[in-house]
Specification:
mainly beta, YerB-like fold, 6-stranded mixed sheet, about 5% helix, DUF3048_N, YerB-like_sf, DUF3048_C, Putative secreted protein
Length: about 325
């Protein structure tokens, strides 16, 4: 798939999607938003912070548990992926060539395996600061990024330091065949932070939205479509025009999708082919489109510093 030249890499665009419920998925990066927008959201008195016994990432009953983030391959050769249907939050980021990778956050549920696992990017470390000191599973980083990893508030778990946590699969060709075992990985990071309030709010939808059945978002060389299913009570996910599935959980869907508008700019890094690695600016404030319960709502992003909470003020609730 060929890359499309981005004329203005610093222009704010619909960047990513965040799905919350049995899965939360957030797409971050420069992409084109296609679909009917909703009105501007206003805070609702019914939206509330997570209460005791309510998991802060989902709103469902669950006890606090350690956080494991996993960097996941999203190239066509890596699909279908394994384990991402059990994630609490999934960020989708733009990478080299206008393609995408995922950063999946696990805490309330741990699947047996997750993958394919790939290398981390500079943008990941700003995203992960809101989670305290999580564990991070990734296949590696380029040498110039190692100092950033070492300085980040997290527990890095690449195969070089946690070989027992990884296995090679047979479903996909290398390098798209590395999988992490979350329980083993977290045992190697015994002090990883538990899930805590990152700014999600649960309750009735705020006023100002409008009915919506479908929403599409594009990166230069990747496309995502979300179609509301009344039967599944989820936004069903399609990637590059094909329904997204997992090897262990069937069709991929989420109860809430957040399209975040961010700035994507060139970083000082590049891949082995010389393609510049994009950097997604996720610290600050901006706008988002929240899709929940067949409704689209325009929602401001809550300003957040590097040590702050989640960038999206989420008014939705996760259905049981």
């Amino acid at each position: 798939m060929s890359a499309e030249r981005v004329k203005d890499p610093r222009r704010a665009r619909p960047a990513a999607l965040l799905l919350a419920a049995l899965l939360a998925l957030a797409l971050l990066g420069g992409c084109q938003d296609q679909g009917q927008g909703g009105g501007r959201a206003r805070p609702t008195e019914h939206a509330r912070s997570p209460v005791a016994g309510q998991f802060p990432f989902t709103g469902l009953p669950a006890k606090p548990a350690p956080i494991l983030a996993v960097k996941i391959d999203n190239a066509s050769q890596a699909r279908p992926q394994t384990g991402i249907g059990s994630a609490d939050i999934v960020y989708v980021e733009q990478v080299e060539g206008g393609l995408s990778r995922m950063l999946a956050v696990f805490s309330s549920r741990l699947p047996a395996e997750v993958g394919p696992v790939r290398s981390a990017r500079e943008s990941d470390f700003d995203l992960l600061r809101q989670f305290g000191h999580p564990a991070l599973a990734y296949s590696g980083v380029q040498s110039r990024l190692r100092s950033t990893v070492e300085a980040a508030p997290l527990y890095p778990l690449p195969p070089a330091t946690a070989p027992r946590a990884y296995v090679r699969g047979t479903e996909h060709p290398a390098p798209h065949n590395l999988y992490v075992r979350p329980e083993t990985a977290l045992r190697l990071a015994p002090h990883a932070s538990n899930a805590s309030d990152i700014g999600f709010r649960f309750g009735a939808a705020p006023p100002g939205g409008e009915p919506k059945k479908r929403q599409s978002v594009r990166y230069p060389s990747a496309g995502f479509t979300f179609t509301w299913s009344a039967a599944a009570k989820r936004w069903l996910v399609a990637m590059d025009g094909t329904p997204a599935r997992t090897t262990d959980g069937g069709r991929l869907g989420a109860a809430t999708v957040v399209v975040q508008h961010t700035t994507v700019r060139p970083s000082r890094f590049h891949d082995v082919l010389g393609s510049v690695t994009p950097f997604t600016e996720t610290v600050g404030s901006g706008k988002a489109l929240v899709l929940r319960e067949r409704q689209g709502v325009r929602d401001p992003l809550v300003p957040a510093g590097r040590e702050g909470r989640h960038h999206v003020h989420h008014h939705g609730r996760r259905p049981g």
